[in-house]
Amino acid sequence: MSSSEFDLIARHFARPGTGRSDVVLGIGDDAALLRPPPGMELVAAIDTLVAGVHFPLDTDAESIGHKALAVNLSDLAAMGAAPAWAMLALTLPQVDERWLADFSRGFFALARAHDVALVGGDTTRGPLTISVQVQGFVTPGEAFRRGGARPGDLIYVTGTLGDASLALLLASAPGVVPPEEFAWLRGRLDRPQPRVAEALRLRGWVRAAIDVSDGLLADLGHVLEASEVGATLALDRLPQSPAFRTCLEAMGDAHPILRRFTSGLAWADLALTAGDDYELCFTVDPANAARLNALAADGMVCTCIGVIDATPGLRCRLADGTSYGPQRRGYDHFAGGPA
């Protein structure tokens, strides 16, 4: 079977029709022709995944395809944008038709779920690296930003925290926890779910927002810096999944696997400083707390974890009121990993 660059594109990435009327010309020419809706602002984001850095080397290709798009859709969600288009730049060490078929299946399954059209990209040879650019739309003036938090705002997160990072730690020590718990956690690492639907339901009354990709402390810190405020977090409110709690209770804080990551409270450090959650962290006026409760009652998983303060800095309090300060802050690519 032919394996030229253009044959690979035709076999695995060119889809007849996009399902979107705003795509005038998609894959197949030197560039795409796209028609943004009148009166909307265009939101654009790009992320790169590198094998062995953003996903374990044993990750299946379908999950890699899913994650490559998911982490970018998470950025659009953090801006309150509705996804529309994507471009894919794929660097491959060699041609593997089965891998490409599985990768494209994972990518396009998530694209269909969010009405995203792949409209262009590039393929080249080299170490496995995937870059995806996404574009979406938001009504003027309604985009979420990092700089809008105000003293008194309540801080919320969607979903649960720490699952993906615990899965990554456990991947190096098979059999330490029950396989069903590990499989669930590994799914959170390999196939994060971008909180696009949640973001669209929150449009119009979020003050500031960010997606949690490098750890809650690091990412919330960006919001605090941009907004020139501080915050206090209630650690007993950090949302934890049943699998997360079960595994940590079975292991105990002194387990060698956990000691490689933390020298304090494992549950708190994982929830606060480990990356790959891809949940939304956002602030709202306390007058809107009832609206958040109504959304939660209607199935949107979100938890109030703290409050914005006028005093600069980020403070963490345990249930008894004592302070807790993890030694790490979050993931930094150029600081040798978790900082």
Question: Could you walk me through the main structural features you see in this protein, from its secondary elements to its overall organization?
Answer:
The protein is α+β, with helices and mostly antiparallel strands and 339 residues long. It has helices at 5-12, 61-78, 97-113, 163-170, 179-190, 196-202, 216-227, 242-251, 256-259, 266-273, 289-297; strands spanning 23-25, 33-34, 41-50, 82-92, 117-125, 129-138, 154-158, 208-212, 230-234, 279-284, 302-309, 313-317, 331-332, 337-338. The strands form four sheets. It has a six-stranded mixed β-sheet with strand order 8-10-7-11-9-12, with helices on both faces. The N and C termini lie far apart (47 Å). The model has no long low-confidence stretch (mean pLDDT 90).
